[in-house]
Design goal:
This protein is mostly beta strands. The protein has no helices and seven strands. It has a four-stranded antiparallel β-sheet, with no helix packed on it. The protein has a three-stranded antiparallel β-sheet with strand order 5-2-7, with no helix packed on it.
């Protein structure tokens, strides 16, 4: 099992993408609001096949799940169904404030 932890502040959106070089692997994402031990399931555990696509997701903590202070997003890759085969996962993840582009008036 491999994990990546990302702190997400209130008002931010976390985005991630990843792929696997060969075979398949389990993936899930969860969020723990700051100051609690409650876990919000962002993405249920799924089996992801290599070569199908680049896997993407995003999460914006919002009350009441996140509370006022943001929290911790955990991305988890699970290889326990195939311990004899190693897996190579490439990923990137970041959190930032997303600013919506204002609508422009039509002429």
């Amino acid at each position: 099992v491999g994990t990546f932890v990302l702190e997400v502040a209130a008002g931010e959106t976390a985005r991630w993408e990843w792929d696997i070089e060969s075979h398949d692997i389990g993936f899930k994402a969860s969020f723990t609001p700051q100051g609690t031990s409650d876990v919000v399931l962002v993405s249920e555990q799924v089996r992801c096949e290599a070569g199908l696509a680049r896997w993407r997701g995003e999460y914006s903590p919002a009350e009441p799940d996140a509370g006022p202070g943001g929290g911790t997003l955990e991305l988890c890759w699970d290889n326990t169904s195939s311990l004899m085969r190693s897996k190579k996962v490439r990923y990137r993840a970041a959190s930032a404030v997303v600013v919506e582009e204002a609508e422009r008036p039509t002429q």
